[in-house]
């Protein structure tokens, strides 16, 4: 779900700034009207993201049709095995291209890549079809060349936009976040090879065992005698006193980690590597008592270190 | 683990499997299993303690081994792992091993035939196999008794525990298993005041051989929290009692010290160390 507020009741469809349209940073430079533009960098033309409904391909609709088709083809070619057999939805940045182009893309996807195309959200489509982004109901709201709703400020030197008018407030904020997200998506700063995670609400008590081929997130504690076994990462938003097994179906552990707000495990397992806890259960006797820690495999042993947001994803990208 | 069969130290070619049970919960089966296992190991016997309390395992905690568990009795029974992979050497003794229970299953996952198979895997490797039975007389109890050569019934000097023990003794004898009795948590001061059943009272009701009497001892709780059997504490009366019981299990003739009905003079001299 990229934009939950799109479906809100109070949403005014007629409003010119409304949306489902996502602005890319490059957008803010000069163009005032949705003219077709040449693309220098194909990675920014198309990005993929996972949503609750499934995979969404986010395509810049302002790119020339020939470039657009080539970019889509190139994008899918490199992800053929991951995508084939799945279905995707299109999301258009800037504007929705002519129906003919959409049709062509749909055909290419289904014939060449065995990917079917879901209908995108109606609001997204209708609004995007007819409304140029740049028209603003109240011109004073947006000054000059600034993008209409890049709330977080666009690109270099982009300033944070003034408070939006009531009619656009509900959507523009989230569009801004989307635009930010698409920017890092374009920079390929994030990696998600596995959009699924099993989320557990509640504490796992002795004798309870959760197993998933994906990652597991627990909003609660994992008590002594409980087990969490994940093909991906194990994230415990509470105290881990039991056994956690990350990367359980990969001998090396696949670079998976075990994270806990308070790590006092009976045992940690990542892949085939096993280490046992210190047995100390009081906060004082743990080295970094009570602080978030993350466990990973280093060589053939498990190391535990204080959690720093950067270290985990930097390592996964390598 | 070496593959040698019992050598000079052993009396028999095949080890003896002893189930430790009680009927009632909370009388000290698990503590007895751990302490007696440790005491037998101190005497140079190779001992395996098996936790048959699947789903509510405790023996690993009492022995302080819970963080070393990888495989358990269910894995051995279902042939998921090799028998030698599942047993864990204790921290203090090279002669004492633990076969832990599974915590995530329940009692019905294995049956008596599978327990017999498990015992067969270990009987040639150990002099004594102590099986910690779960409370109750259901499938868990039947599993624990399967393949046992004899039984130790643990009771406390309370009527409820004794009634359950009586029931268990009956069930065991119907299976052809001979039971011996350990009276746990007795308080001789209370016995003298007439507030607690005496050893003789218990023996009169149950009518089986008494293997040992263990006094109420705070050290038991301390030891359990530390994950070290009380046997290793020479100052603990309970520890001494378990060492004597281990001697009797091995066939030594050790009289059961009689604290019952001691006169004031006896008590005084005992306290002064004159009359041991």
Topology, pairings included?
The complex is a heterodimer of chains A (318) and B (276).
Chain A: E1 46-51, E2 54-60, H1 65-77, H2 80-83, E3 87-93, H3 99-113, E4 116-118, H4 122-130, H5 166-186, E5 197-201, E6 209-212, E7 215-219, E8 227-230, E9 234-240, E10 243-246, E11 258-263, E12 267-270, E13 273-276, E14 293-298, E15 301-306, H6 309-317
Parallel strand pairs in A: 2-3, 3-4, 5-7, 6-8, 7-9, 8-10, 9-11, 10-12
Antiparallel strand pairs in A: 1-2, 11-14, 12-13, 14-15
Helix pairs in contact in A: 1-3
Chain B: E1 16-21, H1 29-42, E2 47-51, H2 59-62, H3 73-77, H4 83-86, E3 88-89, E4 96-99, H5 112-123, E5 128-132, H6 139-145, E6 150-155, H7 159-174, E7 178-186, H8 188-193, H9 199-206, E8 210-215, H10 218-226, H11 237-249, H12 264-271
Parallel strand pairs in B: 1-5, 1-6, 2-4, 2-5, 6-7, 7-8
Antiparallel strand pairs in B: 3-4
Helix pairs in contact in B: 1-11
How would you summarize what this structure contains?
The complex is a heterodimer of chains A (318) and B (276). Chain A has helices at residues 65-77, 80-83, 99-113, 122-130, 166-186, 309-317, and strands spanning 46-51, 54-60, 87-93, 116-118, 197-201, 209-212, 215-219, 227-230, 234-240, 243-246, 258-263, 267-270, 273-276, 293-298, 301-306. Chain A is of the alpha/beta class.
